Amino acid sequence: MDFEAVIGLEVHAQLLTKSKIFCTCSTEFGAAPNSHVCPVCCGMPGTLPVLNKRVVDFAIKLALATNARINPVSVFARKNYFYPDLPKGYQISQYELPLAEGGYIEIEVNGSKKKIGLVRIHMEEDAGKLIHDETRPVSYVDLNRTGVPLLEIVSEPDMRSPEEAVAYLKKLRSILRYLEICDGNMEEGSLRCDANISVRPKGSDTFGTKVELKNMNSFKHVQKALEYEIKRQIALILDGKEVVQETRLFDVSRGITQSMRGKEEAHDYRYFPDPDLVPIEITESWIEEIAETLPELPDAKKERFIKEYNLPEYDAEIITSSRKLAEFYEACVKAFPKPKLVSNWIMTEVLRELNKEGKEIDETALTPENFVKLLKLLDEGVISSPVAKKIFPEVYKGADPQKIVEEKGLKQESDEAALEAICQKILEANPKEVEKYRQGKKNVIGFFVGQVMRETKGKANPKVVNQILTRLLEQ
Questions:
Q1: Which range in 201-210, 406-415, 451-460 is most confidently predicted, on average pLDDT?
Q2: Residue-range domain boundaries for the chain
Q3: Is the pLDDT score of 457 beyond 90?
Q4: Locate the Asn/Gln amidotransferase domain: which residues (predicted)?
């Protein structure tokens, strides 16, 4: 029997506001435990929450960017449950009247495009954090994160594979970062993902029993957890056993999911409108005001890059996945109008360094000015490609390529007389390879070019070397 997965994601995005959602405490990450707290976010008796308007602005922004319907009136609700890091004994969230409903995010997997529907986007406050002592059976409570503003984005169960789920999560992260409302850092917890997953026979319209997966703080973990859970559920069904509706944690070290608790239903939380907060009325003028601040979004930018710069779709997809990288690319092309050469170097050398350090382009010392200088030196034949690649790590760290080339004497050797002497020497030292070339094995010329480049420490102009070698070998 063939099965298919049915996957929906619940994503929590921590917003880039300076203060919390209902008080003026700082949202800065990494502060000493319990240093960003006050009576409001600690849930002290007699305190009242006051809504941070910036949170609503950000929520409207995301709703517009995902084609969602913004409700003219939305209401905060109390979600009641007990947990040690939830000081009030309830979380202020939204339930029956969220900020926005509907909408979609378009993904592409294996060349096929698909729209993933959204159920809702709503605002809520974050809970605190438990820190477990590794030496004793003790846990400490840090309430710095309590009250930090979140947007919860709930998708329809439209995904049918772990690959689609990861593509959706990456696209949503890209949109959030383009809007500059969330930094998307999964490792620090500012973007968190829970997955609801079930399996069913292919062709069936009936949903299977869903399981919620938690503890996934990277795209890789989301992929691995879903892959494991699909296999686990299919194995249960084939053995004639039932899939239990529950919440499971992903054990990263073992690559498996484990039962955590029975799955809660909405009624378990006893939602009711928060009496301390008035309903939010969102006017058309407010929406229009936010709409004017929207940047060009990833999909639109990708299509423009393909048309305007004649980039391959794959290059455009990668470069526009980050707003900062796309802006860096355009700054380079403006100063050096050879878009494919710029793209090639970004896709190889630049991304290699960024991935190695886990950074965004604006977090590095690499500037468009220095990067363009390097490409111009290469394009004008002042330096060879091997030399350009060799010095790039220094340019990436902020060095001026022009100065490096001058100080280290790395200018490309194009003097034909000097190069011909070196070529002649290489040919005389390798008579067997010369004979192979003259017998028709023309690709042997690559060996000779390599020897000349080694002899000149990468400074020889490969184009000139090729011409000289061909002339000498054809004599």
A1: 201-210
A2: 3-289, 298-408, 416-473
A3: no
A4: 327-473
